[in-house]
Amino acid sequence: MSSRVVVTGMAGAGKSTFSRQLAAKTGLPLIHLDLHSWRPGWVRVPRDELIEIQRQLLAVPRWIVDSNDVDEDLLIAHADTLVIIATQWWVCSWRALRRGLRRPAETQLPEGCEESLSQRIGDEWGIAWRNWRNRNTVLENDRRLANRCAGLLDVHVLRSKHEQADFLRHLPE
Asked: What's the whole-model pTM score?
């Protein structure tokens, strides 16, 4: 079994849900990279600082990273497995719209970052809009990333809940 897994995909693809299931099955520690991308008050961590944070988080021998913003060079240098959750853009957008109305109980927010219902709705509905606007770009970026990592990492592109369940079911105990 892999010991350093990056799970990526479009916002709303189901990365966090799949990552939690993968962590439960493998016992690998789970790192939600988004929790490290923000300072209190929703202030974005500068890119160079975020890459250093990623470098430190990926320096340990065993992990699952859940993110659509991991630095590709760090990914290739540290990961042994890449899982792309390639959910259709419209499903991702629908999930974001729904998540704006009802935040799942297991959702964690970065330390010092609170959100009102109206802020959450605006943020999540903005994600739905960006998913539609960037649907072709994200698909192309995922394809490029999978091709770049092929031969270097164990690459899996999972296009449905059924493929995700099969992936988890076939992991060694």
From this structure: 0.91
